[in-house]
Prior knowledge:
The protein is mainly α. Helix content is 75%, strand content 0%.
Amino acid sequence: MRHKLLGLLIPMSVFGVLFSMTFGSIDTFAEFCDRVMGFVNSPNKLGYWYLMSLAVFYLSLQLFRINKSNSKVVEVFIAFGTWLAFYCGWKWTAQTHDPLCLLNCGNFYFFFILGVFCSKNGLIDKMMRHNILFTMGLMGYMVLFDFVAPFHAFGSIVKHIVLPFCALLVVIPLFVKREHESSFVECQLEFIGKNSLDIYVLHYFLITNINLDVVDEWLQMSGNLFLSIMMTSFLSIVVAYVCVGVGNALRHSIHIRRYVLFR
């Protein structure tokens, strides 16, 4: 657990603070400290929130140790209580200063714990045996994609939980069916997945140096949705592979590989 937490928090801190230093010049040590504290207290950590949220999620799994009877009902209550603690922590204390990324923890904990329950109880295999879930997810996503809720709280639940859940019901079966395939696409997806940490911590440094406004303006003028998807996909693939290359170069340093990127 300790190694896993350090493997999340140290890359986030090192690359997040370095990225924060690219926003204008720093002339004094006080300005440097302000920049660091701004990163620490930022709810989104300049985009690096995912690593902090994942670390908090892994820590929260320790709460399930109190379930000595391994009761499924108790597990659900613990999960709900954990989510409620994230929400209350953000609502009452962290709306302006959110060092633990409680806002994102509240938004995404449902999917993390769903993955834990699926892995523990073999729910993926059960889902694959019931194609009706795929159909329901597909239909639900199409219906709710442009759904306008009558009030904010309901709309937030649909946007952050129901709609992504419908997408999971569609995407997971498609990926499971391709799990043992070895086509070029599967090999590249596997390669990117194995190097996802490098892509995540490095890609901000690259995209801030690409004039995306020009690309966006040109795509909007074209009015061609298919062209927009292809262009953005191409840019994403290029950025991903450049990040992997930079990450491999950094790992030539034993100290960076061992103490920063934990590989």
